Amino acid sequence: MLVIVLGPLIAFLIRFVSARFRRYSRRIQDSMGDVTRLTEEVITGQRVVKIFGGHEYENQRFETVNERNRYLNVKLAATNAGSSPVVQLIAGIGIAAIIYLATSGAVLHTITVGSFVSFLSAMLLLMAPLKHLTQVTAPLQKGIAAGHSIFELLDSDSEDAGGPFAIERARGDIEYRGVRFAYDPAKGDVLAGVSCRAEAGQTLALVGHSGSGKTTLANLLPRFYDPREGAVLLDGRDLREYRLSDLRRQIALVSQDVTLFDDTLASNIAYGVMGDVDRAQIEAAAEAAHAMEFIRALPDGLDTLVGDRGLLLSGGQRQRVAIARALLKNAPILILDEATSALDTASERHIQQALEELMRGRTTLVIAHRLSTVEKADSIVVLDRGRVIETGTHHSLLEANGVYAGLYRMQFREPEAVGAYVPPAP
Predict the structure, then answer these.
(1) Which residue has the higher pLDDT, 355 or 342?
(2) How much is the pLDDT for 232?
(3) DSSP, res 176
(4) How far apart are CA 179 and CA 195, in angstroms?
(5) Interacting residues of 248 by C-beta distance below 8 A, sequence separation 6+
(6) How many Å apart are CA 106 and CA 139, to the nearest integer?
(7) DSSP H helical segments within 289-416, as ranges?
(8) What value, to the nearest 5°, has the Cα angle with vertex 359 and ends 395 and 331?
(9) Sign of the C-alpha dihedral, residues 397, 398, 403, 409?
(10) What share of the chain is helix, strand, coil (3-state, %, to 5)?
(11) Of the chain's two ends, which shows fewer C-beta atoms within 10 Å, N or C?
(12) Alpha-carbon distance 336 to 354, whole Å?
């Protein structure tokens, strides 16, 4: 009866300890994520930290998250250290109670020495398994906590493969029809009923202030996101009807934030068409993007490793490599998201010529703050807070004397008339 009474008590204790192990293990997982994230931020942004004197602030932030991580590990260690002695104490109390009852007057005359020793030996043999049971709980709960975050990621919805419609090469007709989109519905729509169109071979430029929805609109084309309402059409068919791999094969991208991989220049330029390109085509694409000017000066030429995220190259050089990559893909649709933002004036002139050659015969979606890059666009869409407020060509929008004309004058003609910022006197 004593064993039956103590069994549930020990089981309750182990369950309580397991719950604490799992809770603290989850918190430690999150805390280690904070430590890693903060460390990466400081390492990658070390120039900003140095020049703005943020050493003490970053030390304080790191100390805060590191102290929390230490506190949680101490709590976990304390739980682990206390669980085994408590279980053994409960078992010891049970053994002491059995010895007391066995030596009492009523039982002493009815139990034999052999029976008593046998029962006591069996009780003592239970001590080691009970101790091991609590020791197994700690690593088991740590594994469950770690596995929970992994399976949460594995169980999340994966990117769908698109519809059944296959396509080799699109004509390039693009249409946004009443598109509404929100990253977080509680914060409102980023795009509110946007409609615009570009026929095959035309250039559609998106301009407007920062945060007006230009990049979001472009990101709907390769289906990085899907609209909440409305539809995006390619050649008259909803993008969701195309196979996703076929759809993205029709699109080349040159963005403001260039991503290069820790590989050779040749591999980065040929990224996406690795099996269908030879060395001469890579060199031709680099030449057209005016990238060979600096590639020839490198010791290993196209075989030069660019380093992690292309850090061995300047911003302008990385952007030229990205343009060469888009040239080589030879897709019918081109997205240029501030494609010349990191180039100097001389380089921009050469790159613009290469881009004009690339854009000929292709449908191009251009996102630009520098309006000099969109003057030759077939259609310019002016966005403001996710809405289309003006549409037309460069000359028609200037004649309308609206928002686009104001932006144009701000950049090229009348900076003093738009309240240009004047720094305070020292």
Answers:
(1) 355
(2) 92
(3) E
(4) 7
(5) 222, 223
(6) 46
(7) 292-295, 315-329, 345-359, 394-400, 403-412
(8) 145
(9) positive
(10) 55, 15, 30
(11) C
(12) 13
